[in-house]
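Our consortium's second objective concerns turning raw sequence data into structural hypotheses that experimental partners can test. To show how far this objective has progressed, the report includes one record in full. It was chosen at random from the queue rather than selected for favorable results. The single chain below, 258 residues long, was entered without modification.
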Amino acid sequence: MEFLDSEQAVTTLKDYLDDDINKILNDLVSNNIKIIYLDYNHIDKDKFLNLLKVIKDKENVYIKVPLEDFISYEIQADCDKIILKCQLSQYKKYYKNFKHLWFEIPYSGELMDIKRMDKIIIKVPDEMFSGDELLSFGKKNKIMLSEALLSSNTIKSHPCNAYLCSGKTCHSTKGNFPRQLAISSDGNIFAYGLIDKDYRIGNIKNFSLSQIKEEWSNLEQYKNFINLNKTAYLKFVFNGLYSTLFWGNCLKKVYKNE
């Protein structure tokens, strides 16, 4: 069963360059993954150009590549499916030359000085679990955040957002299969980027995502994931201390036992 539109599923393939990438992307797209990121710490020019061909006709698939690589290749790509990972100073320097591309910039107080807000994704740090300031800043300037930001009241009223009810009991029919997936270079899938065998969902090279989803509730990792969400709910939602939450970062914080 594919993801619902309301689930807004996101998947990141980290440093994945195997020849079956087109097949895997088609599998993810067919499961209604809303955004797919191909994220690279470094990629050579030929592989980068090949990836551009692969994603050309695929909606909502983006390549993340360091600005340094992009500049060194001297590619004047007229393509809004590329996200350049850079610092704020680099963004200010290169925006005029590459304003048709996206820029991912780490969050810091300096972001308040940005005047041109189009085509920007603010990279939310893992240690940031509440985001009142970013919520108002994002709404005012119409920018994207790298992590989904939810209100605590929404999670309380609709615990499906914290995977604490399933499609069988949820009024919105949302399931409890993780909506944020990270796929490693060897094809292993992890919930919310928790690179740990206890949160390993399956391997996309061996089975389709639909097959993996069918087996999900039978796995020990399923129980681990639900228990992680229960602990995060008690720590961040139940006490009412926070009005907004980056749920993925809340899970990471609980996972690290912080």
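The partners drew two points from this record. The longest helix spans residues 220-237. The chain has one domain: 5-255. Both points have been shared with the crystallography group to help prioritize constructs.
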